[in-house]
Amino acid sequence: MRAVIIVGDGMADRPLRELGYKTPLEAANPKSMDRLASAGSSGLLDPIAPGVVPGSDVANLSILGYDAGSVYTGRGPLEAVGADIELQEADVAFRCDFATVKNDLIVADKRAGRIYEGLDELEEDLQGLDFSSRYRIEFIFKRTSGFRGVLVLRGQDLSPNISAHGPKTGFRVDLIDAADDSIEAKITCNALKEFVTLSHEFLERHPVNRKRKSEGKPPANIVIPWGPGKRPNLQPLCERYELKAACVAGVSLIKGICKLSGMTVIDIPGATGDIDTDAAAKGEAALTMLQDHDLVFIHVEGPDEASHDGNAGGKIAIIQKIDSMVGLLMERIDPEETYIALLADHTTSTRLRRHTGDPVPLLIAGPDVIRDGVASYSEKVAAGGNLGRIRGRDL
Ligand code: ZN
Ligand code: ZN
Question: Fewer Cβ in 10 A, N or C end of the chain?
Answer without folding.
Answer: N
